[in-house]
Amino acid sequence: xxxxxxxxxxxxxxxxxxxxxxxxxxxxxxxxxxxxxxxxxxxxxxxxxxxxxxxxxxxxxxxxxxxxxxxxxxxxxxxxxxxxxxxxxxxxxxxxxxxxxxxxxxxxxxxxxxxxxxxxxxxxxxxxxxxxxxxxxxxxxxxxxx
Amino acid sequence: xxxxxxxxxxxxxxxxxxxxxxxxxxxxxxxxxxxxxxxxxxxxxxxxxxxxxxxxxxxxxxxxxxxxxxxxxxxxxxxxxxxxxxxxxxxxxxxxxxxxxxxxxxxxxxxxxxxxxxxxxxxxxxxxxxxxxxxxxxxxxxxxxxxxxxxxxxxxxxxxxxxxxxxxxxxxxxxxxxxxxxxxxxxxxxxxxxxxxxxxxxxxxxxxxxxxxxxxxxxxxxxxxxxxxxxxxxxxxxxxxxxxxxxxxxxxxxxxxxxxxxxxxxxxxxxxxxxxxxxxxxxxxxxxxxxxxxxxxxxxxxxxxxxxxxxxxxxxxxxxxxxxxxxxxxxxxxxxxxxxxxxxxxxxxxxxxxxxxxxxxxxxxxxxxxxxxxxxxxxxxxxxxxxxxxxxxxxxxxxxxxxxxxxxxxxxxxxxxxxxxxxxxxxxxxxxxxxxxxxxxxxxxxxxxxxxxxxxxxxxxxxxxxxxxxxxxxxxxxxxxxxxxxxxxxxxxxxxxxxxxxxxxxxxxxxxxxxxxxxxxxxxxxxxxxxxxxxxxxxxxxxxxxxxxxxxxxxxxxxxxxxxxxxxxxxxxxxxxxxxxxxxxxxxxxxxxxxxxxxxxxxxxxxxxxxxxxxxxxxxxxxxxxxxxxxxxxxxxxxxxxxxxxxxxxxxxxxxxx
Lengths: 146, 658
What we know:
By secondary structure, chain A is α+β, with helices and mostly antiparallel strands. Chain A contains 3 helices and 7 strands; from the N terminus they run H-E-H-E-E-E-E-E-E-H. Chain A has 2 domains: about 1-35; about 35-135, CATH 2.40.50.140. In chain A, about 30% of the residues lie in helices and about 30% in strands. In chain A, strands 2-4-5-7-6 form a 5-stranded mixed β-barrel. In chain A, strand 1, helix 2 and strand 2 (about 50-60) form a beta-alpha-beta unit. By secondary structure, chain B is of the alpha+beta class. In chain B, strands 3, 4, 5, 6, 7 and 8 form a 6-stranded antiparallel beta sheet that branches. A 4-stranded antiparallel beta sheet of chain B has the order 2-11-10-9. In chain B, a hairpin with a 2-residue loop joins strand 10 (about 595-605) and strand 11. Chain B is globular, with a radius of gyration of 27 Å. Strand 1 (about 35) of chain A pairs antiparallel with strand 1 of chain B.
């Protein structure tokens, strides 16, 4: 086998694997990513019912209701709009009314939200960047920086 | 006073680093041996100064000197002593200082132990190390000074983030940084060789041990981080495909590829251009990781504070080093001569295939990590890329590689015989199939893909030793001869087998813990019993207590199997008043390689929500990483690889030919 043939074999193999990887990445990017939306965007029907999104905002004051069986409902607000969220499971330690939260789940037909994940914040000062942006858009952000 | 001395030592270290980054390289161009020799004392002095600086900051933490802003914001006088030490790097400023300390440590090691390096190469390597030092010490002094004072000094500190108050903080960051920063040595070697214009097999022999050491630390650091997240966050998950996790995975993958391509370069003088490029890429990915984690573009537990100037500064460092080294590469790569010739089916070919797969896998992680950032800055749309993305991209790319691993070591250099390799693997194949059938008998047909995963894991574990078995003529020669051959084998043969079987062990753990896990979230009252995987777990009651800087409420649960008490577990909730923060402390009971994992929800009158996980064989995942690391460390002790070792002498006659 000449040097040229050998090189072509290797380039061919690399091409096949990279093409496979690129194909998978493109497919996954079109299908497996989750968009972040604020309650206002959900109300304004920018999100189709049944689609999987991350919903972020502040936990509305006085909205958290815990049932006996571990089910929890609460409202997520960005100041302009509010969405009811149903969740079953253990809430993160820093989940509190009036604090920022990001939940992941499915938008229902009646514009409520069924979450299967409530993301933990790691710090009492930390508000997820997405939430900060959403609040800024609605003119409700008073913190500095970030 | 001591704090000011620490600050001053850091400024001095910057000055020394400036000398180190200029004088030796100037010496190379002026062919002045004395100037070249400056690198060694400069690197050692720098290590001493940064060590002093780090010690000064540690002192401030240990005595709880709250007149230092950094100590005030991240420490509390009630903390146990261990956490006073670990608090030093439990924050942005201190962790970057640790980064620089480790950088200086590696530079000092090259200076002290690289006595066999040619003087020109050594001078250049130390100069390049000096550039990195200058950039990062400059970053600390310019944007992240850990020694800034506060006047008047507060009475009490704000405490360390409670999630970080764990033994994990003592282990995970130093290990990970040893790995990250260790990549800088192979980078410096690569850039030095490009400047010098001379790259040969000897270069690979010098650079490879450093890469290997970095890889061992990175492997352990990532595994430790994964285990820490697993038990601390209370979600029972071990890998979240979080961008900061990817930030450590990317350099690990690149270093793994580099290790393998450097073997080809060392033994066959081929793949030179590619190896040098990989060395540059590995460190670039480490820098990218540092940028992602430290700049505040991502929000996570690792992002201590978001400060735009810091992000811009690191981005500039990133551009300068990656751009500069790649430009140098583009200028010089053409002048490198290709080396030995080999057939596609050969050890070289197998190692190239390994590199192709690993590079493609790295690329998928890079895309998944950076795409959301790029998309947001271009269109404003916010997305999150999580496990489903990687299951569809990373996993299918890596899976074929895993199946092919056992073949590689069985192929000869230059021209291999695939059929002979396959024949030698027949036994391993049979054993792995047998093992899979045994597993199938126990768990039943649940998921075909999971069984495939189990097979891959067993295949790797057994197949990794096929080369060893073949070389000692196991079952083909008398046992006494096999034993004699075994003793005579070079250590690197064992290390390859161990590292590859470690991958198999890890695969087995991941597959099992992902597929056959049990999970139950239920509210339990005192006296109630829950059952998971045949274990009966009874809630006995609650207890409250006090730690040094927290209040704790714990639940007592008794675990029984067939009526026999196996363990008493007490998961708890802790409240840290200094930060007004609550944490969940999971309780874990290890049975063999499997674990019962309990974490608590809110405790109410006479009951609580309990999250119960059953994680079968889960610890295999981390043991696999440990076995891989042992393999790597063993290879470091191989005399052919010893730092700066001369060309290996002809081996004793008894040892089999390579």
